[in-house]
Amino acid sequence: MKVFCYSFLLMLLAHGLYAQPSAVGKTKTDQKLTAMLEKALAGFHGNAGVYVRNLKTNQTAAIHADSIFPTASMIKVPIMCGLFDKISKGEIRFNQELVYRDSLKYDNGIVGSFRDSTRIALPKVVHLMISQSDNTGSLWLQAMAGGGAAINQWLDANGFANIRVNSRTPGRKEGQAKYGWGQTTPKEMAELVAMIRNGKAINAAASERMYRYLGMQFWDGEAISQIPPYIKTAAKSGAVNQARSEVLVVHAPHGDYVFCVSTKNQQDETWQQNNEGYTLIRKVSEIIWNHFEPKSKWKPLPDSGKWWF
Questions:
Q1: Distance, CA of 281 to CA of 40 (rounded, Å)
Q2: Rounded distance between C-alpha atoms, residue 42 and residue 45, angstroms
Q3: Residue 295: helix, strand or coil by DSSP?
Q4: Angle formed by the axes of helices 204-214 and 76-88, nearest 10°
Q5: Residue ranges of the domains in the chain?
Q6: DSSP of 11-43
Q7: How far apart are CA 200 and CA 208, in angstroms?
Q8: Does the domain spanning 24-67+185-309 belong to CATH 3.40.710.10?
Q9: With 0-12 CB in 10 A as exposed, 13-18 as middle and 19+ as buried, what is 187?
Q10: Using one digit for the tens of pLDDT, what is the confidence trace for 87-133?
Q11: What is the reported pTM?
């Protein structure tokens, strides 16, 4: 009987049915916010989804929040989780020095511009992955974390059935062909970041370190641009030709909230500030901020976002 129960528990964990992404508790739909977001998404030339949860009141708003979208560089959040899981188990030393090799190069980002044999501390590579969204560094850390299969196993065990690393992951060719490096639902990506914020991802110490990384963003011209600069945020964005996305926690005066907005199949594939996906992300962020902080006197500049290069 004990063997059966243990096997049944393992099966539940493997399918993400036993563990839950975080102690979300009972939620209630925010009808007003939902209506505003539905209006904002109407007419978008592509597919878009949004998930919002007020962490103080547990009110939520969701539009296509359980649909699967490309993560683009948001996949670097679960990569970070997989890496810190290895660190917590003593399989990787957080402060170890790494040696870069030319064989690791993926693109001409910061890490990809290093000379062969350059030495760099692991924490700096993590910082570059999250704050600068460095791709070469991210793939390096993905491999150190045990590869996409190990990261996906961690996600499954923690209740994230839809977030997946596809690139360089056995058995994920179909997912990579459809979604690219990674895939997620807006709800799961938002709740993963909320789990980190709540100190529940791996352990409190790992969550705190990861959350500090998420609070240091170079790419702040979209959702973050609609939040007052004196308000703490923790975020990660992502973009490929036909998709734009961003997830963030906002430490608003009247209560923290988390949200994720994702797009796919965009007709607008330009890389300008007025790309329809970027414009939607800024609009969604503005709506949510003004909804939860209606008396805020701060307003973004009319040309907010134009300084994105």
A1: 10
A2: 9
A3: coil
A4: 150
A5: 24-67+185-309, 71-180
A6: HHHHTTSSS-SS-----EE-HHHHHHHHHHHTT
A7: 10
A8: yes
A9: buried
A10: 999 999 999 999 999 999 999 999 999 999 999 999 999 999 999 99
A11: 0.91
